[in-house]
Amino acid sequence: MRTLIVADVHSNLAAFQAVIDDAVTNGGFDEIWSLGDILGYGPEPSECIELLRSYPHKMVAGNHDLGSVGEVSLRRFNPYAAAANQWTGKQLTREQADYIRALPLTLEIGEFTLAHGSPRDPIWEYLTTAEAAIACFTHVETYWCLVGHSHLPFLCIPRLDSAVFMELPKDRRVQLDDNPLIINPGSVGQPRDRDPRASFAVYDDADNTILHRRVPYDIKTTQEKMRRHNLPDFLIERLAVGH
Ligand code: ZN
User: Fold this and answer.
1) How far is the CA of 19 from the centre of ligand 1 (A)?
2) At the N or C end, where does the chain have fewer CB atoms within 10 A?
3) How far apart are the C-alpha atoms of 173 and 138, rounded to whole Å?
4) Are 174 and 205 in contact (CB under 8 A)?
5) pLDDT tens per residue, range 96-144
6) Dihedral of the alpha carbons of 165, 210, 109, 34, in degrees to the nearest 10
7) Taking residues 175-182, what's their average pLDDT?
8) Does the structure show a pLDDT above 90 at 161?
């Protein structure tokens, strides 16, 4: 079974579709795991929910998902994110909003734990420090942990009493074994590692590997749609530089 792993789609339909197309072209997938924040920032929130739901899928909630449907206060977001979340909430049907409200904060699937931020603080914690990684390793009961939220693709392994963050190699399979590790597949809809291409991963349980991919998408079309909806310029411009 092959699983398409996406995080931080952020209402960017063109990016999400490009990711799905690339995964289909390169062996296909049976299911999508979404690590949260399918909503926020971008111009097509409803369409992204429906594209996800047109496939077998599992999803955990992210901060922007819950912010958009009033489950967490918009005061906890910066002004750009708050404005986009407020707009996003108005675009959703009641049924879509209920779907988002009912999302779990973490999921255990086989030897994977899925969380948006981190297993100990799924909505808000940025898993970018050794301290947070160590807490993650001690917190989860599975070998492997998948997170999003920072929009930075990485691989993290425990070493002695610390943790080491490494670049998640592109187009080269990472072999999973019974050693713990944390993987962030990067962001589909708003990458922040200065590579504007959509970032994602595919897990193949036949050989127990994870493959990280980057794909270009039509950034200008997404930006044009954001402009039409008067979403903040800062959010529009950052897509082109991937930061
Ligand atoms: Zn995000």
Assistant:
1) 17
2) N
3) 26
4) no
5) 999 999 999 999 999 999 999 999 999 999 999 999 999 999 989 999 9
6) 80
7) 94
8) no
Predicted confidence (pLDDT) at residue 160 exceeds the cutoff of 90: no
CA of 74 to the centre of ligand 1 (A): 14
For residue 160, how far is its CA from the centre of ligand 1 (angstroms)? 31
Radius of gyration (C-alpha) of the chain in whole angstroms? 17
Per-residue tokens: 75: 């005061």
DSSP state for residue 146 in the 8-state scheme: E
What's the average model confidence in pLDDT over 147-162? 95
150 CA to middle of ligand 1, Å?
7
Query: Torsion angle, CA of 17/23/25/29, rounded to 10 degrees?
Result: -110
3-state DSSP call for residue 149? coil
CA of 192 to the centre of ligand 1 (A): 10
What does the pLDDT look like over 51-95, one tens digit per residue? 999 999 999 999 999 999 999 999 999 999 999 999 999 999 999
Q: How far, in Å, is the centroid of ligand 1 from the Cα of 151? A: 6
Q: Which pLDDT belongs to residue 103?
A: 98
Ligand 1 centroid to residue 189 C-alpha, Å: 9
DSSP-derived letter for residue 170 is: B
Using DSSP bridges, classify how beta strands 31-34 and 57-59 pair: parallel, antiparallel or unpaired.
parallel
